[in-house]
Amino acid sequence: MVSRSYMNFLDLASGNLLEIPHTPRSIPRVMTVPGIISDLDGYGPHGSNDGDSEIASSICHERKIIVTNMLPLHAKKDPGTAKWCFSWDEDSLYLQLKDGFSPETEFIYVGSLKADIDASEQEEVSQKLLEDFNCVPTFLPQDLQKKFYLGFCKQQLWPLFHYMLPMCPDHGDRFDRTLWQAYVSANKMFADKIMEIISPEEDYVWVHDYHLMLLPTFLRKGYNRVKLGFFLHSPFPSSEIYRTLPVRDEILRGLLNCDLIGFHTFDYARHFLSCCSRMLGLDYESKRGHIGLDYFGRTVYIKILPVGIHICRLESVMNLPSTSAKVKEIQEQFSGRKVILGIDDMDIFKGISLKLLAMEQLLQQHPDLQGKVVLVQIVNPARGSGKDVQEAKRETYLTAKRINDVYGSPEYEPVILIDRPVPRYEKTAYYALAECCIVNAVRDGMNLVPYKYIVCRQGTPYMDKAMGITSDSPRTSMLVVSEFVGCSPSLSGAIRVNPWDIEAVADALNLAITMRESEKQLRHEKHYRYVSTHDVAYWARSFMQDLERACQDHYNKRCWGIGFGLGFRVVSLSPSFRRLCIEHIVSAYKRTNRRAIFLDYDGTVVPQTSIVKSPSSEVISVLKALCNDQNNSVFIVSGRGKNSLSGWLDPCERLGIAAEHGYFMRWNKTCEWETHSVADDLDWKSIVEPIMRLYTEATDGSSIEVKESALVWHHQDADPDFGSCQAKELLDHLENVLANEPVVVKRGQHIVEVKPQGISKGSVAEKVLSNMVDQGKPPDFVLCIGDDKSDEDMFESILNTVSAPTLPLAPEIFACTVGRKSSKAKYYLDDTVDVVKLLQGLATASCPKPKYIEQTLVSFESII
């Protein structure tokens, strides 16, 4: 088993990483269970920090640990005392989400500060923030912070997640391994901070955004059963874009170490699921409305819910005297003109220049609007730096100047750029007065500007007074929203546009400002109902409820960690499911003398991925040894054809073979092949084969396997998404046309199979065991090993048959699946190598070597 120590994790992750000192444990741990801390969480000299202690406390309560890149705090140094002063950032989403929970719920925040704190002051600041704000700061060295945030996050992840590829040096930065190492190092330091204060059995950890996508791997390694959720606030790109990232698998596996992953829209979730399917081979399914991925026995759930806004906070700003004064000032400034409002960060993805071009097109197509409509564009400071930001800013100013020169006058500026820090009250005033709000981003994760606009247009009694309207006046609002923005799907009354289609955006703006008041009112009411009921509190509460549900089975399963570095993951299986120990089965083997052994072929004695499908000399040797023991009845039970199996296994004269899932059966090499009783009824093949051929022609990479008893459509080499879609359609098609035929249509891993009813591997096991009973040799030992769904029939059949009253005594049963996965079998082995080694152990027990011959003992670790 892999060590749980995480001290050398960086070295395992990517080799020579930055020399970052391990975070000192300077912040006191919070005790929720009486006693000595080291006794409880393994931080004592003899403890292990796996977090899986069974200690429970009747007085403990659940806490929420919110992990973000930046803490929701303002930091300022007092020039007089030279001391740091801190205050809450009331506008931060991460602070506002607390409103979704009861006042008794404790929140701890982990993240960096927006200020550079000297190393000599970090200890004092840490204590102050923990005591006064329940915040745990992560102090990254300045060089690391620059490479982590401005480097990997902003220059590589952010553009990629917004569909921008570095096709040439002038168009984005190429992948830089040193920046990636900084990202790994920073995520490791964040995880260290969480480990200082977490109580893994009680606390829920909620990690936010693309800065910390590796953190779940480090945290899951420290605590296998940590309750961990992640929410991505940016878009997740399609697989065609994401697959270009050299560290794509590491990031996907990092996210999959969570219990719940949240996205704003189904599109983002769909892209993530597609990446997991195409790059990691993982399938997902929807169960009772919840999407789940099976990842080594753990179910990773997917949450789709756009974030909301804090309405009360916005209403309180509307009621400020400064807001009222600004409203009156703006009303006077734009008297007789309609205001179109845009509020965006200055970056290349917000589409500001495209918005200005649409405004230019509007004025050109509708000269009557000149002098009557104004676009007010508030530009928030850029969050990143680089030549792309400077280029976007230059283009914006040039376009605005050109429009004002052509269509403006001394008394009229059609485009007003406000490129300075704008206080919230001033933005609120513009929201309240704007006839239309436009969000024209070419790609954006969520964008809450439309939500804020809708609430401000709804107003408050204080705002109504400032605007000179009565409280019963009808409320209106008009939104023009890019279809590439995360909030677009939730705003069904907005005019959705393609921001690249300048004429269509201009037409949308014209429609928005000329629409009938009654229709504006209906659209506004619809939007306000949604925004007011899906606020930030609803979003946070809903996410945490799903996280609690996702974690409820944590202690009902056995967990252990496997893998090194960023490939670490946790295997989670049923408590009764254990590794088949060779010493245990050999002991039972020696005690018995009427043994039945059933072995699958592909994926069990021959690797599934092997190009050469014939058995190795080692497999032939061990099968011959088992068959030569007169106390054994050994059968290969496979879906393959009889000719292939009989040719490959020809040296094993006493080996029984069941081909095509039991349609053909031979007790040994000297016996004739027996055919199942349904052999004469295969007329359905003439119906199935043309249909499968049709789907094969339409699905590149698919093929048909023709067996004597069955027809199989394979799509393993087809596009994963299209192949899966076609397989589902083929399944429905065949079930409809074969409804009255004596056949079974089944969908397996990358296949759709049609075969006669009553044929299964389970029926083979039943027949062999019944034959042994009829011969007066009821089995006292049954071993069955297989790796796929068809073998589950054997496991079930064996358990049912041996419990039948015809058997005088219950035999020793060893039903074993290959691979750690959900199964009806009680045991598992990791791979075909383990299977062959186990069979060699049984063969040795059948043919013990003379004592004088030197023997080599092989030890197999058992995980019980």
From TrEMBL:
InterPro entries: Glyco_trans_20, HAD-like_sf, HAD-SF_hydro_IIB, HAD_sf, Trehalose_PPase. SUPFAM superfamilies: HAD-like, UDP-Glycosyltransferase/glycogen phosphorylase. Pfam families: Glyco_transf_20, Trehalose_PPase. In the C-terminal section; belongs to the trehalose phosphatase family. This is Uncharacterized protein.
